Fold:
Amino acid sequence: MSLSQDKQPYVGRFAPSPTGPLHFGSLYTALAGFLQARSQQGKWLLRIDDLDTPRNAQGSIDHILKTLEIFGLHWDDTVYYQSQHLDVYKDTLHELMENRLVYACTCSRKTLAEANPTQTRPDIYPGICRDKMPPPRTPHSLRIKTNNRIISFQDELQGLISQNLADQHGDFILKRKDGIIAYQFAVVIDDCRQHINHIVRGFDLLDSTPKQIYLQQQLGLPSLQYMHVPIIIDTQGYKLSKQTLAQAVDLKAPHKLIFELLTLLKQQPPDELKGVEAIELLDWAIAHWDPTPLEKLRAISR
Ligand code: GLU
Ligand code: ZN
Structure:
């Protein structure tokens, strides 16, 4: 019997952070993930990555849900909120601590700057606290020990990606000094809890994927399939993100925006479809979805 016969049904997801309203760039990623899932009769789940409470913006969850509805990007099952699963992260951290894979780090920004005076790669943690006992009751983050084993994966669009975590990132943070669970850690736990087996997301997260694979390995979790789609940049070359204050998408003419998004996804929707409703456009896109023209593309300008 060939392995493909017992292939698991596709389960994908969209996992926005509610740091502002949904903008064009996030809708682009959402649509890619939706089409990838639906074209394989798969499930497409919605998760709200709301752990970074200081960055959560009031009203953005409602805006995100409403936007997806208006654009016809209907998700399966109930919405999963990361903030409702804090005990799971805590228990899993405990497990890693018992296995001595995690340690307390009390480094301040200043310590880190002094340890790396040339500032060549200030984001690589030099391991200062790795073998120290933290002074009691000092605020600290929790870091996971990395090693020199190469982590590789075959991205469905970007090809073979390989990283040496120890060299390229150093021991990274699972829980921040302010107590907040880091994205890298939460995402791995939740993708597994939601039985997700396919990730479609923006190229900006490609560099995070080896860290997440490493965490899956340490926790004995199944590995996933990854597809990193190009990010949308403006004509000046900046990412259309919430940080650069990209505007909320216009909800008044969804079919027009979907047509534009499909063009930017290189699906070449025929001109006859210009006047049709969003739903009809999506049906066409599901039937014709082919992500291969996006191969090796990191960014597309709008
Ligand atoms: N919540 C993350 C973000 O909005 C994305 C998570 C993911 O797709 O892995 O950037
Ligand atoms: Zn430290």
Q: What stands out?
A: Residues 88-175 form a domain with the Glutamyl-tRNA Synthetase; domain 3 fold (CATH 3.90.800.10). Residues 105-107, 128-129 surround zinc ion (ligand 2) (CB under 6 Å).
